[in-house]
Amino acid sequence: MVEAMVILSFEATDVFLFYILFEAMLIPMYFLIGGFGDRAHAGSDENAAAQRSYAAVKFLLYNLVGGLIMLAAVIGLYVVAGNFSLTEIAGARANAPWRSRPVPSAGCSSASSSPSR
Asked: 4, 40, 70, 71: least CB-packed within 10 angstroms?
């Protein structure tokens, strides 16, 4: 399921569809982390389950906050360009005064969604 959402999100030519699929990847990842987390470094079974659950919730919340920044960038693109189509946004970007404004928010959302330890 994760693989299908990754492929579909990068095949999307619509910014909003990309956002929805990118955020939908969090649901199966939550269950994968919660179910199979880091079993090598956990002590007892109860402790391991608690650590996996904590890690899964932390992962989900951290990425949802980053997703809100990405949603703001997507809405900003829609307000400025008038639609969600990547081809039309790229065409409008070439001769627009707002060329780099959505880029910092998209960069911040990508940085917050990247895995860290």
From this structure: 40
* Lookup: tokens for 92: 């409008």
pLDDT tens readout for residues 89-101: 877 766 666 555 5
pTM: 0.71
- Give me the helices (H) in 1-117, please: 2-11, 15-24, 26-36, 45-81, 86-93, 102-113
d(CA 65, CA 34): 19
In angstroms, the CA 105 to CA 95 distance is: 20
Q: Rounded to whole angstroms, how far apart are CA atoms 7 and 20?
A: 13
* Residues linked to residue 85 through DSSP beta bridges, in sequence order: 14
Report how far residue 21's alpha carbon sits from residue 8's, in angstroms, rounded to the nearest whole number: 7
